[in-house]
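Morning!

This is the sequence you dropped in the shared folder:
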Amino acid sequence: MAEISIEGRRVFYFECGSGAPIVLLHAGAGSGKQWTKTARLLEPRFRVIAPDLWGFGGTESWAGEPELTHDHQASLVADVIQHLCQAPVHLVGHSYGGATAVRLMLRNRDLVQSTVLIEPILPSLLESAGETRLFREYLEVAQSFLRNAAAGDGCRFLLQSEQPDIAQGPRWALSFDPGNVRRQDDRARSARNRDSSRPYSTMSV
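The structure's back. Tokens below.
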């Protein structure tokens, strides 16, 4: 893993290959290493860059105000692209990274040549489309996960799920690393200890 300094903080990224740049954005509870196998397939034709977003993998936690949003993550990715690439990139985002990719396209269209979104987290579109029941169902699941994560039980939510195949399946295994969740849980507890007045909240989309 290589690193650069952005806003005075360490940002880590995985890089391999040569050719047109392609930036891969990981899912929640993961890191750029999520893309290791994919990168090996792409590196003969592309320069693959897979950053760790704020608070994930080796990258330092978000230290700004207000609380972290996908806009902040998109700004981080824009800075990574501007530091490392001389041309617009092919952008791939999975789940959490997919939502960040959308924000980046809206804010910095000149940095993006093409985009692939894989299961992007964009629940607000459900509400906009009038799918109120599905939107509320999403909120219940997300809030349950966040309560468990805030209590240090980010993994337990999945292990006790009524659909255990989700946690066991190979697709999920690519983006879900219990070690990463434990590290995020530790960071959440440390943040609460520093300032118990700030609530543990979800990312805005």
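Headline: The chain has nine helices and six strands.

More detail when I'm at my desk.
O.
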